[in-house]
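Field log, afternoon session.

UNIT: design team B
ACTIVITY: writing a sequence onto a fixed backbone
BACKBONE:
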């Protein structure tokens, strides 16, 4: 009973902290864009970490890379859950590409937009082309970009074939790719199954195992590949190998 009460108190404190910080971030998001710079992004990443804590999720970063990681990169990951929008931003300093619907989410959408989240309408060819140009411009400015090569939230298993977007950007820009493999130990609770977002967050909060493992591997140099197809196939095979290791 004492442990249950202690858990409830921690959960309550987590949500109070999130509500307070969200209110501040929301108000600040109305500042003119010229005043929203790196400081707001740092606050945004901290807000993502607070959000994760409110959901009781424990983020574990596993540095499986043997070589030092580059400071300028394109980061990719598998996409089994909606939680990645929080976890990846909390751990990695990159501007992530999200579906256009996220932009209109109440409070969360506005905060993400102010923090520099990029958006794409996956069903619109023109929107995808514009998103590619925007990301290439961001890379040329020295920013880091985050993408999910499965092309959306497809469930716990790796969804193939991978989309070419991240790999085409890497070849055009010469920027290396950092691959991250995500593994939630309570796979079924975290897996996106087309529930209502609030329902999914509640399921994650109630999960008996809140450990989220983020495995980082060595950066991949796009200059070693002759085409986006070759680079895509190579990275896709890596993810399929990691799936055999982590998703039993």
């Amino acid at each position: 009973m004492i442990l249950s009460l202690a858990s409830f108190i921690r959960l309550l404190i987590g949500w109070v902290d999130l509500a307070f910080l969200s209110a501040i971030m929301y108000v600040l998001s109305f500042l003119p864009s010229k005043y929203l710079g790196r400081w707001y992004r740092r606050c945004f990443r901290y807000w993502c970490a607070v959000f994760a804590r409110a959901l009781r999720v424990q983020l574990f970063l596993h540095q499986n890379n043997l070589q030092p990681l580059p400071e300028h990169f394109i980061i990719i990951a598998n996409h089994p859950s909606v939680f990645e929008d929080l976890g990846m931003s909390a751990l990695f300093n990159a501007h992530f590409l999200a579906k256009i619907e996220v932009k209109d989410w109440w409070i969360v959408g506005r905060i993400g937009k102010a923090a520099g989240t990029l958006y794409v309408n996956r069903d619109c060819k023109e929107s995808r082309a514009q998103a590619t140009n925007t990301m290439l411009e961001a890379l040329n400015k020295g920013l880091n970009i985050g993408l999910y090569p499965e092309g959306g939230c497809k469930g716990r298993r790796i969804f193939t074939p991978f989309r070419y977007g991240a790999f085409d950007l890497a070849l055009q820009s010469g920027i290396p790719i950092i691959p991250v493999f995500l593994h939630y130990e309570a796979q079924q609770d975290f897996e996106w199954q087309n529930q209502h977002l609030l329902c999914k967050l509640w399921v994650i909060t109630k999960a008996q195992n809140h450990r989220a493992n983020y495995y980082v591997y060595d950066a991949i140099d796009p200059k070693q590949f002759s085409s986006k197809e070759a680079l895509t196939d190579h990275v896709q095979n890596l993810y399929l190998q990691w799936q055999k290791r982590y998703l039993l």
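LOG NOTE: The CA atoms of residues 13 and 199 lie 21 Å apart.
NEXT ACTIVITY: expression trials, pending approval
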